[in-house]
Amino acid sequence: MASQPPPHSSRYFLDRQQQYESNARTYPRRLPLAIRKAAGLYVTDADGRVFMDCLCGAGTLALGHNHPAVADAIRRHLDDGYPLHTLDLTTPVKDQFVEELYATLPPAFAARAKIQFCGPSGSDAVEAAIKLVKTATGRRAVLGFHGGYHGHTHGTLALMGNRGPKAAVAGLMPDVHFLPYPYAYRCPPGSAADDIEYLLDDPENGIPPAAGMILEVVQGEGGSIPAPDDWLRDIRRITRDRHIPLIVDEIQTGWGRTGAMYAFEHAGITPDVLVLSKAIGGGLPIAVIVYDESLDVWEPGAHAGTFRGNQLAMSAGLATLRHLLEHDVPAHADRMGRRLRGRLADVRGRHPFVGDVRGRGLMVGVEVVDAGRTDKWGRPPHDGVRARQIQQECFKRGLIVEVGGRHGSVLRFLPPLIITEPEVDAVADVVAAACRAVADKPPAATVL
């Protein structure tokens, strides 16, 4: 008879989680730990093991775990007697949150901006954005991109590039049309903006007039793929000339992740609709869309949600924002991202199965491949099995990283934006050790 795990050990809590939680749970399957406490880059599990966390709530924790500025803001909010929840009734906290968020936007965008507080998830904010542009334009088609990820709700699933989560769900949102995203390492045919422009102008393209186009400036779940600035500028011109509202999903990139407050700023463009969540709540749930006032034609109650009045998240978000600006954290994230990519490129030089190191700021991806094979375009196939082996070897050595991208072949790094140079080097050293540990294992790729 198998022995029972000690009470309050990680195994004890994981077994209870498996007993009670749904089959849809994800992260504990690959990262089996029960977190007892956390600070900055580090989490400690119920057994006392310490891990460097380069997942950080899928990018939610811009300042890492339990940052003092955020913790103090939460205590102050409670001590001052502010409400926790107000639906969409305003408060001094909400007013300040909006004012300071607007101050981070390009001035021309801020001058014409309206904001809608949504349900507390990024998925709900994307749903609101799609509803907004359909209402404003009277059209029904939505343009998305291969590799795109915008959430797991019924509507946002339709916008997802990954077919797996969609397979079992019938009747998804109709009239979604996918375009090629510029994936430099793979160079898919037709990814140039000129090809998209030609397609949209073709009267035989089969696409009804578009209500909007949605994209990520750096694809996250798609594999940490940054879009070139020139391509983004072309896409902005194409959509503006054709009166197609451009929705930029910055749920994962917003507030400093890519080395600028907003990823779209690198290309010098301005969206019609900006979708924000994750970092803007300082670790607590909140989501908004900010959009051009010309789109603000929907009726009162057109998009609602009980928890769009999360006042504590606004206080935590304000504290996060102020710390980001006062300490120029986006510039620090840019430097640390360059350092991390440089160290990981050194690992690539020693291991051919590390095919590509990419990203922007502290949104970094390492694509793992079977270097001994190529497809007809000369590209090595994805090796998701080896990527997961590296992930597990990292976990054994105290580093939490996620996998994503095509066939789960990309190691994804989303550390706190305040990570230090020694911590970056420590992360890279663990990855190097993990790659050495799997170097002698045979390649497992079967998918070209």
Give your account of this protein's structure.
This protein has 448 residues and is of the alpha/beta class. Among the domains are: 75-326, Type I PLP-dependent aspartate aminotransferase-like (Major domain) (Aspartate Aminotransferase, domain 2), CATH 3.40.640.10; 329-361 and 424-439, no CATH class. The chain is 36% helix and 16% strand. It has helices spanning 10-20, 27-30, 56-59, 68-79, 92-103, 107-111, 122-137, 154-158, 193-201, 229-241, 311-326, 329-350, 384-396, 421-438, and strands at 35-39, 42-45, 50-53, 113-117, 141-145, 176-179, 210-215, 218-219, 225-226, 246-249, 273-276, 288-292, 354-360, 363-368, 399-400, 402-404, 410-413. The strands form 4 sheets. The chain has a 7-stranded mixed beta sheet. A 4-stranded mixed beta sheet has the order 1-2-3-15. Strands 13-14-17-16 form a 4-stranded antiparallel beta sheet. The longest helix is centred in the C-terminal third of the chain and has 22 residues, at 329-350. The radius of gyration is 22 Å and the shape is globular. It starts with 9 loop residues before the first helix and ends in a 10-residue tail after the last helix.
